[in-house]
What does this fold into?
Amino acid sequence: MKTAIYPGSFDPITNGHIDILERALSLFDAVIITVANNSTKNPLFTEEERVALLRQATRKFKNVEVDVFHGLLVDYVRKRGAIAIVRGLRAVTDFEYELQMALMNRKLNEKVETIFLMPNEKYTYLSSNFVREISRLGGNVDAFVPPSVRKALKAKLK
Ligand code: ADP
It folds into this structure.
């Protein structure tokens, strides 16, 4: 049983995240999509809200579990019996930070591999950050997020 961890802020989950999740599911037997609590970010949705939105958006997939973790990612990967970390790469701008993080995680535990997956081109400009900003300004994000997220954004920002 080969399990991968897909960690992120998911504030909120977008269609780009779902694209990466589907690609990961074609490579691994199971994927644990997990909300990482990054203390340097000030999230729009609480941890519980992000987990609930992830659950709704990933309900249709088999072999996906939604979880949260606090602490070191490599420790969490080991605890969950996973063999890899999955991250999405949209553009060169993602690369430097992602490479640094992957190599640091390898230094902390050399058995954990990081796998980078590229989304469909139509998602390469999509980020949770833009979705939050567009929603705040009253724009339409229907093409970028699952319906449950659209509703949650409306409720949160009204
Ligand atoms: P983080 O704060 O950890 O970057 P995000 O929720 O922003 O959390 O992203 C989680 C992962 O998903 C990251 O690897 C990010 O590059 C990737 N990702 C985010 N949006 C997209 C997208 N539109 N297409 C592909 N990958 C994406």
